[in-house]
Every structure is written in structure tokens, then in C-alpha cells.
Design goal:
Layout: H1 5-20, H2 45-54, H3 59-73, H4 81-86
Helix pairs in contact: 2-3
Length: 106
């Protein structure tokens, strides 16, 4: 299948948008991962799968999440690697443990 230059550019812009937009609410939103939440491209596939079964949010956010899920569900997550490299790497979805310094121990 051949793609036109315009189609390639549109896809590149779509990937860049997915890489820039962060989850604005919920488990991976700014409340849990300040200051902006987890970028959509770094959301776990299981989380995106949950939305695919129950419905993605309305509007552009839902469209971007659905596209990210479709890309990840066919094993093409590596398409986001250049964007991750430009942003300093994959954003971890693991919670960091609070560690106290020796002076703060009781």
C-alpha cells in the first residue's frame, strides 16, 4: 500500500499530537501524576483497552486515545519511540514511593 506525502504528513502530525496531549483526568491524570498527567502515548494498553470496551471520551481527546489504542493493540507502540526520545524517554506510570531523609525519621 502506497501513501501520499500528504497522508504521511497527516499521520506524523497525528502522532505528534498524541505525544503532546496528556491524560487530563482519572488514574493517570494530573492529580496522580503532576503536573500534567501521563502522555496519551505512554498510557498502558490495559487502560486504553478499558476505554475501548466502555467508550472513549467525546471529542478530540477520545479520538487521540482511540488512535493510540489502535496503534498499541497491533503491536506498533514503537512508532512513538522517536517522540519519547525527543521528550527524554517514556514516562513511567509507576507511583514513586515517598522516601524520608534520615533527619525526618522519628
Amino acid at each position: 500500500m502506497e501513501f501520499s506525502d500528504g497522508e504521511r504528513e497527516d499521520f506524523r502530525e497525528l502522532l505528534e499530537e498524541i505525544g503532546k496531549v496528556s491524560m487530563p483526568f482519572g488514574r493517570f491524570g494530573p492529580g496522580e501524576f503532576p503536573p500534567r498527567g501521563i502522555p496519551i502515548m505512554d498510557l498502558p494498553i490495559e487502560y486504553l483497552q478499558w476505554f475501548s470496551e466502555r467508550g472513549f471520551p467525546n471529542g478530540r481527546l477520545g479520538e487521540l486515545m482511540q488512535t493510540a489504542w489502535e496503534i498499541k493493540s497491533v503491536g506498533m507502540d514503537s512508532v512513538f519511540d522517536p517522540l519519547r526520545g525527543a521528550q527524554g524517554g517514556r514516562r513511567s506510570v509507576r507511583k514513586r514511593k515517598n522516601r524520608r531523609g534520615d533527619s525526618e525519621r522519628f
